[in-house]
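Homework help board

Subject: predicted structure for assignment chain

Our instructor gave us this sequence and asked us to write out the predicted structure in token form, then describe one feature. I got the tokens but I'm not sure how to describe them. Can anyone check?
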Amino acid sequence: MSKLFKFGEDVEGYEIPVLNEREIRAAAGIFFVWAFLAVLTAIMKGSFVMLKYFILAFLVDFIVRVLINPKFAPSLIIGRLIVRRQTPEYVGAAQKKFAWVIGLALVLIMLVLVVFVNSYSIITGLICLICLIFLLFESAFGICLGCLFYGWFYGKKARYCPGEVCEVKDRHEIQKTTWGQFFIVLAFIAFIMVSVYLFNETFAEKPQDLFKIIESAQSK
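My token output:
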């Protein structure tokens, strides 16, 4: 029974229970794509069906993660299968549990407001935005935003963080950014803004069928 209800795995060389960050990121990526499509469908088509299914799936998955055992969470099992050829990257389980409790609280609010009450508001919009940001940072950048709050809430430093961000250390040379590189980023942003100003009307034109364009050109 103790092996069934357990949070984190005991791995040799680690003093506290840990989890595999690689499968967590994979699961976050899966949920991000689903959430993004669900929110986009709700905004563009006014249909909340996909969002409601997402809320139910997210709720069940996080209940298993937090209250039973992460190793039995469906999304983490799928993530485990996807990254099974990669070497595990172990992270402390404590801060992950704290982050997932936050996620569970948010999805419970969404369950009540969107599924039970069948409503939408600025509250549900903000929660969707927060969830998308959390999932994006976890999957794309390997940054667990919920884990950052762990240290603030408990007043102690988390252990075994992804990329060793919990440890104070000098950055490697390849990690450093020069002022010239900052200028390149600013120039790129300026290029995008100028492009929007110059080509907005042209890009807004509705695309045509390629084969009809070719046929039209040949007939001239």
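Reply (TA_rk): Your tokens look well-formed. For the description, you could write something like this. The chain has a mean pLDDT of 88. That's the kind of observation they're looking for.
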